[in-house]
Specification:
By secondary structure, the chain is mainly alpha-helical. It contains 10 helices and no strands. It is globular.
């Protein structure tokens, strides 16, 4: 056997092993486990999950985490997130394309790969019009208002959006959603800053 053949066989084995791990991870990891990891601030499970899956909600969250704690490695995740959002546009619930594209623009602004803060805010607002009863969308818009500088942002207005989302997050399907926990944290932070 030639060395190129053995190299190709070894490479094929690596690819098969990676695919098996990927399929295993996507089939075995539950929202509850990811939620628990989020609460423990152990994002290694999230990284493995995001690397193996196209799950926009977790990609959105992981990009925010990487920007905060590992900024030099954020750009490939943001680029991948953008590509996944654009590829899934037609299959997303109302308001989710706008919400996720707004997040992409925010993340790109933070990495200085593009500068579209008004477009990001406009998309976030548009998402709330398209999905006025979606807690993910309402909470996301609250987050935009929370971080945006005045006159675009407002902790008081952000609190109103977080509280609206909180009411909707009480439905059983949101029990293990990491955004529900983040929304609660933002409510507490807004109340503290508004004292």
């Amino acid at each position: 056997m030639r060395s190129t053949d053995s190299h190709l066989i070894a490479r094929a084995r690596q690819v098969i092993l990676a695919l098996c791990i990927s399929f295993s991870l996507s089939a075995q990891v539950t929202d509850r486990e990811l939620f628990d990891a989020y609460q423990r601030e152990d994002m290694s499970l999230w990284k493995a999950y995001v690397d193996a899956n196209e799950d926009l909600l977790y990609e959105y969250g992981y990009c925010g985490y990487v920007l905060e704690y590992d900024k030099p490695h954020a750009t490939p995740y943001i680029s991948r997130f953008r590509a996944h959002v654009q590829a899934q546009r037609e299959n997303l619930p109302p308001g989710h394309y706008e919400m996720y594209m707004s997040a992409v623009y925010v993340y790109e602004l933070r990495t200085k790969t593009s500068i579209h803060p008004l477009k990001a805010m406009s998309l976030a607002k548009e998402a709330t019009k398209l999905a006025p009863n979606d807690p993910l969308v309402l909470s996301y818009y609250g987050t935009c208002l929370f971080y945006a500088p005045k006159p675009f942002g407002s902790k008081k207005e952000a609190l109103e959006w977080f509280e609206r989302a909180e009411q909707l997050f009480r439905a059983p399907q949101w029990k293990d959603c990491w955004v529900r926990a983040a929304n609660t944290m933002y409510i507490d932070q807004c109340k503290e800053k508004l004292k």
